Amino acid sequence: MKTLTLVAMLVLVSGCGGGNTDPTPVTTTLAAAPTPAPTPIPTPTPISDHSGTYSGGMVFNFQGGPEIPVQARLEVSQTGQDLELGELEVPGFGSFPLRSATMVNATDFVGSSGYQSVGCGRIKVSTEGSFSGRTMSLLAGLTSDCFHARFRGDLTR
Description:
This protein is mainly beta. The chain has a domain at 52-156: Lipocalin (Beta Barrel). The protein has one helix at 2-15; strands spanning 52-62, 67-79, 82-90, 94-103, 108-117, 121-132, 135-143, 148-156. Strands 1-2-3-4-5-6-7-8 form an eight-stranded antiparallel beta barrel. A hairpin with a 3-residue loop joins strand 5 (108-117) and strand 6. It is elongated, with a radius of gyration of 41 Å. It starts with a helix and ends with a strand. The model is unreliable at 1-16 (pLDDT under 50).
């Protein structure tokens, strides 16, 4: 009985797997990782040229007095970020040099300048505004020892 049991065990063990016992190597080819897309370089927003003659209604305030509706005209020329605002012509009140301003983005501008006047000394000029299509919204302040004037309104090209 011992012999029969041993033979049965050998048959069972030899029947398990039999043959070659060397492990089969696993070979896989790794696919190359995809090349990441390059980071796009943002295209700079072109600055529109806002040069031209603007005119329309504005509100004029002198020395803190009442606001007076007036018609005004202004020549604007632009080179890159720099604006030359020329003289704000207001019939019945005169011409007011606004000088220069700088575009701070594609639509908005600010300016600060000055000039020597006849009779009122140094005039300080501050401007701010924005462009939207053919319209320029403008706020201009002129200050000296003699007066303080303010203009605000929308002018169209």
